[in-house]
Design brief:
The protein has 356 residues and is of the alpha/beta class. It contains ten helices and 13 strands. Helix 4 packs parallel to helix 5 and helix 7 runs parallel beside helix 8.
Length: 356
């Protein structure tokens, strides 16, 4: 079993950090914090669990509730049924929309099928949707920085398809055309690399000097915090392992950020079983982080795997604290309140009403 350890201030006669008293290199792990679940993911996963408790199985979920295989499999075992499209949900059933958000047309489809909906869209993604609607109403061209095909990008673009142009990184800037260079604004997917996004913004400003920035940073606090932490870890690591699924944008970005910050090597793994022991050759310090949709049990398994191979000393690198939480979707809050009222003699609770 690994052990977390505090790192005391060195005495004048102490061996350099990372060395044993006899001068040999000490195997260690630098564990990034914050890491793992963000407030939006925590809210979405709890929403599925609460819906199953409140209404019983099956509860349908459109797309993966969050981009993590372990989380999806765990919820499936509890009775959640994951589908690709709204049309795959039986009429009159309950459907939960994922944390990544959906376009207005998806709500319309759900209403047409008389589905009871629970919207688990992350509030920070909802903020970007509202910005898109507002700028489109004012007839701006909206340059959405993000990755083509990502669910969040599809949902945001659907809010104002006639006004939004996707910009997939700095190399895509040359292809952008706008109607009026004096009425252009940029928005972004919430899970991008901060550094690459600002590189894209700078390139856009070179082409469109009057480009307007959104009123607040679109990249979510959790994405930024995890990137800051992994940069600090990577600077002192021979190898960085990021726990996360391949379709998780923020997890993929963490590997890229780690390599850019000085790690000799970096890999994305879903769990300890995907680690190649050959990666440890010549490695004294392993950095660990995890994407915003990764439960900590998967990180604990990686730490145990490393401890069995001599990396038992774990130092936590925590440049900041997180305290943000989000309330459950309003549909669930309403019915949980109704259930509490029923238990105290009020009207009985039932499934959520289909969205009008």
């Amino acid at each position: 079993m690994y052990k977390r350890q505090a790192t005391p201030s060195p005495s004048p006669d102490a061996a350099p950090s990372g060395d044993t008293p006899d001068g040999g290199a000490r195997k260690r792990v630098l564990l990034a914090a914050p890491r793992g679940y963000c407030a939006g993911v925590d809210r979405a996963v709890i929403a599925v669990e609460k819906a199953l408790e409140q209404y019983g199985a099956p509860v349908y979920v459109r797309k993966e509730i969050v981009h993590n295989k372990f989380v999806v499999r765990t919820l499936e075992k509890k009775g959640a049924v994951f589908v690709e499209e709204t049309e795959d949900v039986p009429e009159g059933s309950i459907v939960i929309f994922s944390a990544h958000g959906v376009a207005p047309v998806v709500h319309e489809e759900a209403s047409a099928r008389k589905l009871a909906t629970i919207d688990a869209t992350c509030p920070l993604v909802t903020k970007v949707h509202k910005e898109a609607v507002r700028f489109a109403k004012d007839d701006y061209d909206i340059l959405l920085i993000g990755h083509e095909g990502h669910e969040e990008v599809i949902g945001t673009s659907g809010e104002a398809p006639d006004h939004i142009t996707l910009v997939d990184g700095p190399g895509d800037v040359k292809n952008v055309e706008v109607r009026d260079p004096s009425k252009v604004v940029w928005l972004s997917q919430t899970t991008l690399s901060v550094d690459e996004t600002m590189e894209t913004v700078d390139a856009l400003k070179d082409r469109f000097p009057q480009l307007i920035s959104p009123p607040s940073d679109d990249i979510c606090y959790a994405t930024q915090n995890r990137q800051i932490a992994v940069k600090q870890v990577a600077a002192d690591s021979d190898l960085v392992l990021v726990v996360g699924s391949k379709n998780s944008s923020n997890s993929v970005r963490l590997v890229e950020v780690a390599l850019g910050a000085g790690a000799r090597a970096g890999h994305l793994v879903d769990n300890a079983g995907e680690i190649d022991e050959a990666w440890l050759a010549g490695v004294d310090t392993v950095g660990i982080s995890s994407g915003a949709s990764v439960p900590d049990v998967l990180v604990e398994e990686v730490l145990d795997w490393l401890a069995e191979r001599g990396y038992a000393d774990v130092e936590i690198v925590q440049p900041m604290q997180e305290s943000i939480t989000f309330s459950l979707p309003k549909e669930l809050r309403r019915d949980l309140r109704a259930e509490a009222a029923a238990l105290s003699g009020g009207p009985a609770a039932g499934a959520p009403d289909a969205r009008a």
